[in-house]
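> @MW can you paste both from yesterday?
MW: sure, first one:
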Amino acid sequence: QGKFTLLRDTRTDGSFLVHHFLSFYLRAGCKVCFVALLQSFSHYNIVAQKLGVSLTAAKERGQLVFLEGLKSCLDLLFGEEEEQSGQPSPLQFISESASNLKALFDFVRTSLTPAGSDSWKGPVLLVDDLSVLLSLGATPVAVLDFIHYCRVAVCSQLKGNIVVLVHSNEDSEDEENELVANSLCHHSDLILWVEGLATGFCKDVHGQIKIIKRVSLELTAEQDVVQIYQYKIQDKNVTFFARGLSAAVL
């Protein structure tokens, strides 16, 4: 509880980790606020069904609060956004001159603050993917402020967890995105860094994952624990193995 997990991908797609955490927390009985900026609800629902979880059922019972970023953006841009109960759209900053993510933070806080009848185990904020906010016009400072306030509200006050995906590319000229990704690395309790293979595509090894446990954050003068595995994504699960020890090699 109270942990911030950063999912970072370079030269590959790390979205399989988002699907894992989404189904994991729903099965565990947690209240989940999913800020989905990259794909539609039906996309996440189809993958979740393969993993044995129904997002539609989770929404109906109030366990999952789903913000469909693609739809909200279109509604805002074409003026079809209806204010719900007098509240502005969570992505209101798109149509305003000020890059202010306060409306998005208010949406998250309202969604995860427990009501009297709630019996969920703990709140979870899941964001896929933070880089999209920069593409929509938010400044790096606004995005980092948003994450900071979410950490205070969700991790510190509500004793919940936050899982955030951010794309990165060392060779990219997108300095704002790299600034956000590197800044979040310094604040994370756990970093799952997915990278494509330096040697290129391989049908038996899809990439490698670096698991960094930030022991140094606890001020114990210990080094961070780093583990590196390679992985292969299958239809319903992912297999991990030590580098160079895939079944194809052996």
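MW: second:
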Amino acid sequence: LELFTMFFNSVTNGGKTTLAEKLKNMLPNCDIISQDDFFKPESEVETDERGFKLYDVLDALYMDEMVTSIRNWMKSPASSGVVTEEPENICDNLKNVYILIVEGFLLYNYEPLNELWNRRYFLTLPYEECKRRRSTRVYQPADTPGYFDGHVWPMYLKYKNELEENASMQVDYLDGTKSQEELLSYVYSDIIQELNKLRE
């Protein structure tokens, strides 16, 4: 039984969830774990002096539970309810591999996750495009005025800088302004290549 885990990190609205879902349909025995499922309830999320709820920090998430979920999946991927229906025309050497996609926005700044991946991607967006996309989404709780500029974007820059300063971090940066088709085709062929390398 072979396992392959890939992590997708991105700025808010960077397109990671869409990409993950599309890849899941193209790859055999593929499952997704989403960091968004591990947010603490609103009452447990800290508020800063400006009244902003601090969602874009690791403390807003049950990260240890997330690591446990990933490890449990790795122990028995077949029992995770993953659909083992083969996608069309899948190449033979992928038949008995189980693939896990972990997607989130703070994956590479949490030490215990660092030993769990085969491949890491980071979708980036310029400020204007990110802000535009964010404004089209409805959040629970809703973004308060100034929240994006006051909390979301500064936190993204902080974590991205930490990542770039850490020389040992192997991350493939992707341009989130490219079309979904382009990104999908790049990541898919990259994964197939990686899996082939593992087989050699």
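> thanks! The beta strands are 2-10, 30-34, 97-104, 119-124, 172-175.
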